[in-house]
Design a protein that fits this description.
alpha/beta
Length: about 350
């Protein structure tokens, strides 16, 4: 009897140990929402496909959401822990009372070419015309505002209408069919219209001012409660970013872009080049970029002008990863420079 009790106790102890061991190694499940479909999103997909998330103890449900406002709503409800979003939607959300923090900026440069129908030859010809958008308040909308400023145009004064139609492929089709007269498009899609003779009013590289195109945004409550998860997630995406820009991995990255964007090899090559040109290899939150976004938005929404942009940014985890040498080691492991 005593022997059987000792055996039963031993089994009980083993089961408890096994449960604790499983709990320690089971990945933490998070939801990551993203509102853009272009080559610069590839590191997000690669973080999953190449196992960087799993290696950092995470399982991420990656959800594409059409439009930054819907992504913000999901984060506000607590259903989404990480949001790949732009500065305009983030500032609008903070101005509306949400407590969100930008912990990284993966793209702080303009990424949109401005493409118009062939009958539009100069920026002035946009007066009274229709511009296609994905959403009001999203990164694409902000790109249009930057382009109009660059052209010396004003939406109200010049009677330019904004049409919310859908994501980048739909916007491209709208310009092609005449539903819209122009659009700010990523390189993958602008190239298609360019080859068909549509007018390129502006190349992405022509806009030099910093912005916040693709940032990693988290609710403050989640950041305060689980900074370890936020850090592990950033580690995974930085590892994926280093993988994505390494020439030796080009074929794998192209394959991912083709699959996710449903693009052919030539268009995926354009998306890959857009990735190389458009990402920040050390994705520190961009204060200058966020100030530029605020400058553009506050004339349309005075509440955004009241936001203290420096308080929207939390760079502590990025500084930790940089100062520890983690970022440099990750790029060195892929055989590429961090610059």
């Amino acid at each position: 009897m005593l022997h059987s009790r000792v055996f039963a106790y031993a089994v009980f102890v083993w089961l408890i140990s096994a449960v604790h061991a499983w709990s320690a190694t089971a990945p933490t499940r998070v939801v990551v929402g993203y509102a853009a479909m272009n080559g610069r999103v590839a590191p997000l997909w690669i973080a999953d496909e190449q196992g960087f998330l799993a290696r950092n103890g995470l399982h991420a449900d990656q959800v594409y959401i059409r439009g930054a406002p819907l992504l913000v709503a999901g984060m506000a409800s607590g259903d989404i822990q990480f949001g790949r979003s732009g500065g305009s939607a983030t500032l609008a959300a903070v101005g509306a009372g949400h407590d969100f923090k930008i912990v990284a900026t993966f793209s702080s440069r303009n990424s949109y070419d401005f493409i118009a129908r062939s009958n539009i030859k100069r920026p002035e010809d946009l007066r009274g015309k229709r511009i296609a958008l994905n959403s009001i308040g999203g990164t694409g909308w902000m790109g249009v505002l930057f382009w109009l400023e660059h052209f010396g145009l004003d939406q109200t004064r010049d009677q330019i209408s904004m049409q919310v139609l859908g994501d980048q492929p739909i916007m491209m089709q709208a310009v092609e069919t005449g539903i819209a007269d122009a659009a700010a498009l990523d390189g993958v899609f602008s190239k298609i219209l360019r080859q068909k003779g549509f007018t390129v009013l502006g190349e992405s590289a022509n806009l030099a001012q910093r912005t916040v195109g693709q940032a990693m945004v988290v609710p403050q409550a989640f950041l305060s409660q689980r900074p370890d998860i936020v850090e592990n997630y950033l580690k995974a995406e930085i590892e994926a970013l280093a993988f994505a820009v390494a020439p030796k991995n080009k074929a794998t990255v192209i394959k991912t872009i083709m699959k996710k964007l449903k693009a052919n090899a030539n268009d995926a090559e354009e998306g890959y080049q857009d990735l190389l040109k458009g990402v920040d290899r050390k994705p520190f939150p961009s204060l200058d970029g966020l100030r530029n976004v605020q400058r553009m938005l506050k004339t349309r929404n005075p509440k955004i002008g009241e936001v203290k942009v420096e308080e929207v940014i939390d760079a502590r985890i990025m500084r930790k990863l940089d100062e520890s040498g983690f970022i440099d080691r990750v790029y060195a492991a892929q055989g590429v420079s961090v610059k």
